[in-house]
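Why does residue order matter? Because the sequence determines the fold. Keep that principle in mind as you read this record.
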Amino acid sequence: MTSARRRIIIKLMLLMLAALACMLFAACNPVLSLNTKYSYTSFGMEIGQPINTDISEYINLGELSPEDAQFVRENTEILYDGEPADGKTFSSAGEHTLSIMYGGRQYRKYDITVADNEPPVFTEIRSLYTFEGIPIEDEEELMDELFTASDNSGEVKVKIKKPEVDYNTAGDYKVKAVATDPSGNKTKAEAIVKVQKPEYGAMGTYVFVDIGKQHLTYFVDGVPVLDCPVVTGNTYAGHSTPRGTFRIRYMNRNITLKGEEDNGDEYESFVNYWMAFIGNSYGLHDATWRGTFGGSIYQGAGSHGCVNMPYSSAAELYSMVSPGTLVLIY
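Structure:
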């Protein structure tokens, strides 16, 4: 017998065995009956819906004995696009297939059209705050980070329309965003760039020094988190603390401030916490040589222009601010 004839005979035998196995499976095992709903061959589903893999959803097991029903459960499988569907959802819009496999063979195949009618959701919308005359550094990049969106498809694109901000004029400047998912569903949102007048209690993160009340307050996102009495510049001696809106330029620990008294004598003052807001001349710092703060001390025994703070308050503020933090003195 030639090798070619041998191969043909082997193939025929395998085909006969496969056919016999199918005949035996059909003869010995329960005949399946579809539930009415699944007598159709095509369905529309919504993206995100879980895929039901309980065979009783598709097959009428009520017509079978408990033993036959158990056999069907053990020998059936639901496939989604040819892969096991356990734990999966209809996760992407478009055309898909759902198959019932019985005894390793396809018993029923369904054409599934998955639609996405749910628009994206903005999960976070932030705003930016500043004060007149103080431009926001890295404005373009920060505006891009104001919005966070999600979608049931797992994909979403956010397009942002940025305003031209006049930092010399107080007002609300709207930042507009449109979130779009792969199916074209859209959601709009707005944030603001708020340019404010330098007033106590304004939104944002900043240190506010009220010279009249001799009081310092540190605000985080518009909420006061630290406050204390202070002593500002000696007004009678012409050392008034500069008024205006500044930023902390740099910070340092355990330094000695040096200067000259009005009579020409030099002085040295050791400070534990130094937060400069104008060059190396003016800053926020502790003043351990003072026994009291606040009131009218500044009018005759004030500083040389710095903002003197109690030791514990200066230490706490130093741990919370950083170079770039706004300092409002009015």
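The chain has three domains: 24-115, 121-196, 206-329.
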